[in-house]
């Protein structure tokens, strides 16, 4: 297995930030993975696993090695009248996978259509949208454990999924390389349309009992209307997580800002809409040089073309500070900044 040297990652990250990787390799065989990891270890290189680059803020120089997992394929491992367990390669495109499930009549992940990136990265931050997250249908995954140097199977509990969080982002950051992912899906479609954006969209179309395809299409239409296409305007989707606050904090804010947008969560806390906070702090549509805040959705920070990670991180810092000053709420950046 040969490393490619000085590889330009500008078109491999959805912000389109210029970044040069010292060493780059793509693998889809375990033997090749073991061989590249061996040289990473021998050289003492830092290692970045790169999927579609849609949840990363890359700085200009990427030292050490960058590895892309290219495992492909979708297999049904078991099925019966009601459910099917399917296994999919980490290198598959997420939206392509969701579309294939729809064609196979396997349900549960329709609300996650059109999220950019790879299947392998989806468990890393337990991707979610429109009231669904992958933990809802997750079965298990196979990953390469860099400490014990072997393939391991991790079940749902072991992955420690939380809101935009998992074992792979916290306790075991950098330890596992996700190789295949398994989902438990339903052969019977039950629409999950409680999320206001979807129900409003379907109501406007006069659809009362939507099919799986109609929910999938509604999600695609809503997303295309409010999120910029990374090929046209660099971005990583939501730049900040929605802050989770206690009921008393929520009540304090509600008294001060009656139109604040928030959703109760299962644990009795409230998830504040970070986009609303940023918008109310006056940032929506602001441009600072080559970076800015998207004019249709304040949660999305954008690169107009010539921006750098440092410009964006400075803007993010200014936004966080003004939200803190105005609401006494702390914002947390969602994408991974690399090198940290
Ligand atoms: C327009 C837009 C909309 C978005 N909407 C949403 C949304 O609705 N909901 C949501 O949750 N996210 C959303 N995102 C964020 C992003 O698409 C997801 O987080 C996605 O899962 C990232 O996939 P990726 O392959 O691009 O990962 P990358 O950005 O390449 O990597 C993300 C992280 O995963 C790690 N990683 C990648 N592959 C592997 C692997 N095989 N094994 C171990 N670690 C790995 C990387 O090291 C990195 O830490 C959006 C992004 C954009 C640009």
What would you say this structure looks like, in words?
With 340 residues, the chain is an alpha+beta fold. It has three domains: 4-69, Uridine Diphospho-n-acetylenolpyruvylglucosamine Reductase, domain 2, CATH 3.30.43.10; 74-186, Uridine Diphospho-n-acetylenolpyruvylglucosamine Reductase, domain 3 (2-Layer Sandwich), CATH 3.30.465; 234-338, UDP-N-acetylenolpyruvoylglucosamine reductase, C-terminal domain (Uridine Diphospho-n-acetylenolpyruvylglucosamine Reductase, domain 1). The mean pLDDT is 96. It has eight helices and 20 strands. It is globular and about 60 Å long. Strand 18 (291-293) and strand 19 (300-303) form a beta hairpin. The structure holds flavin-adenine dinucleotide. Flavin-adenine dinucleotide binds at residues 14, 48-56, 69, 90, 115-118, 120-122, 124-125, 127-129, 168, 177-178, 227, 230, 235-237, 336.
Give a nutshell description of this structure.
By secondary structure, this protein is an alpha+beta fold. The chain contains 8 helices and 20 strands. Flavin-adenine dinucleotide binds at residues 14, 48-56, 69, 90, 115-118, 120-122, 124-125, 127-129, 168, 177-178, 227, 230, 235-237, 336.
List key phrases describing it.
340 residues; Uridine Diphospho-n-acetylenolpyruvylglucosamine Reductase, domain 2; Uridine Diphospho-n-acetylenolpyruvylglucosamine Reductase, domain 3; Uridine Diphospho-n-acetylenolpyruvylglucosamine Reductase, domain 1; 5-stranded antiparallel β-sheet; 4-stranded mixed β-sheet; binds flavin-adenine dinucleotide
Inertia-based shape: globular
Order of helices and strands: EEHEEEEEHEEEEHEHHEEHEEHEEEHE
CATH architecture grouping of the largest domain = 2-Layer Sandwich
- Whole-number mean pLDDT: 96
